[in-house]
Write a sequence for this structure.
């Protein structure tokens, strides 16, 4: 059990800068494995959504007193599916309402099927300086199984078009552990990814999410349950191949070329303040975790335009019925220390002593003496001069390590 009496809690505040996440709840088609808060066939709601998103951005900027923005991430959903003029208007609103740092990383998730030279130029002109492309596989058969609306050749072409337009920071997302996926198919996908020379690669193992069409098909026996051992072999192969080709793994699912890590996602893993806007977006700031209502239609009817400048309690000011926030959890020091450990241990650098002690006023092994002793004895974590981090063995059993630190926050 953690020694909570030792905590002197000083979490980072939002006036030191935030990560800004924008949720775009539209997709041209819905992939059968996806359980994100995103919808196909509601394009008639796009213009209302864009207006409400702008109002929400202005509302937050007012109630928070226009904080600096370190990173922006447009995710979803499919931001690249929005009309370029709407994207430009959203970026302009952000620039007008917040203090966006000159060096801000501005990422947009992109579907290869949306990329044209004209759109690429307009995204770049609107300020986007990093693309995260959902390629998922370079095998057409598997892309069909995933219900993707692009082919492997189109994904390759899209990547090159973006490069030609001037994007020098591109990430490729891949999924492994798919039904019927062979080791050879995975190896070919890795080859084709490496050949494109992206700056960053994210790898996700397929999760069969309850209620999705894919889960129904797996349950009905149309597809086999993905083989965990084969998926683990694919992960290990990726670790070796990416390492041999100049990519450093810096997080459990993420690799990059030197200095090209995702700065936005690092904000999440370091448990630093971020604001999510748009339907269903999550946030952590002002000592609270909170989430917006999920329905795009309700979102457009609830977001208002009259939010107080520098509100004493900004989250309350943006909470329903006056604003889109619907769920609020106060983060106690016990929860914050557990979450900081759980997320920080995902990073290869681990939880650094310097950061931890600055935030909690004591060392990790002072606050978690039993947990650290047990995990060290099991060989699951290492303690170096700089940090507490997963050992090689701990990397394979990450969830067991995270569970040790989470415990019961109410105890
Ligand atoms: S494109 Fe992405 S967000 Fe949209 S349905 Fe497919 S996986 Fe989900």
């Amino acid at each position: 059990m953690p020694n909570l009496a030792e905590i002197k809690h000083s979490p980072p505040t939002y006036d030191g800068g935030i990560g800004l996440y924008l949720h775009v709840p539209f997709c041209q088609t819905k992939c059968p494995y996806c359980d994100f808060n995103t919808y196909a066939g509601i394009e008639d709601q796009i213009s209302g959504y864009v207006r409400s998103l702008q109002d929400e951005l202005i509302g937050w900027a007012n109630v928070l007193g226009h904080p600096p923005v370190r990173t922006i991430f447009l995710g979803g959903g499919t931001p690249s599916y929005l009309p370029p003029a709407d994207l430009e208007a959203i970026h302009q609103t952000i620039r007008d309402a917040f203090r966006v740092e000159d060096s801000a990383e501005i990422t947009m998730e992109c579907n290869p099927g949306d990329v044209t030279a004209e759109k690429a130029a307009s995204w770049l002109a609107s300020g986007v300086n990093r693309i995260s492309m959902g390629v998922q596989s370079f095998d057409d058969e598997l892309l069909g199984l995933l219900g993707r609306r692009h082919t492997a050749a189109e994904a390759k072409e899209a990547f090159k078009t973006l490069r030609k337009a001037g994007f020098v920071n591109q990430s490729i997302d891949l999924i492994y552990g798919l039904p019927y996926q062979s080791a050879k198919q995975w190896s070919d996908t890795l080859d084709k990814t490496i050949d494109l020379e992206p700056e960053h690669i994210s790898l996700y193992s397929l999760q069969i999410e309850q209620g999705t069409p894919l889960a129904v098909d797996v349950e009905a026996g149309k597809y086999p349950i993905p083989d965990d051992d084969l998926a683990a072999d694919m992960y290990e192969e990726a670790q070796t191949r990416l390492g041999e080709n100049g990519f450093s793994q810096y997080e459990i699912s993420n690799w990059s070329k030197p200095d090209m890590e995702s700065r936005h996602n690092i904000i999440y893993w370091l448990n630093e303040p971020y604001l999510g806007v748009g339907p269903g977006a999550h946030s952590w700031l002002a000592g609270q975790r909170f989430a917006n209502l999920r329905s795009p239609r309700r979102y457009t009817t609830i977001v208002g335009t009259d939010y107080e400048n520098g509100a004493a309690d900004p989250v309350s000011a943006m909470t329903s019925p006056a604003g889109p926030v619907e769920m609020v959890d106060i983060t106690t020091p016990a929860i914050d220390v557990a979450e900081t450990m759980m997320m920080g241990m995902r990073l290869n650098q681990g939880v650094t002593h310097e950061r931890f002690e600055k935030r909690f006023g004591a060392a990790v092994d002072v606050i978690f003496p039993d947990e650290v002793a047990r995990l060290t004895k099991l060989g699951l974590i290492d303690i170096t001069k700089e940090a507490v981090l997963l050992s090689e063995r701990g990397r394979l059993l990450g969830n067991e390590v995270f569970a040790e630190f989470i415990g019961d926050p109410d105890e």
Observations:
- Residues 14-268 form a domain with the TIM Barrel fold (CATH 3.20.20.70).
- Residues 27, 30-31, 34, 36, 38, 76-78, 111, 134 surround iron/sulfur cluster (CB under 6 Å).
- The first helix runs from residue 46 to 64.
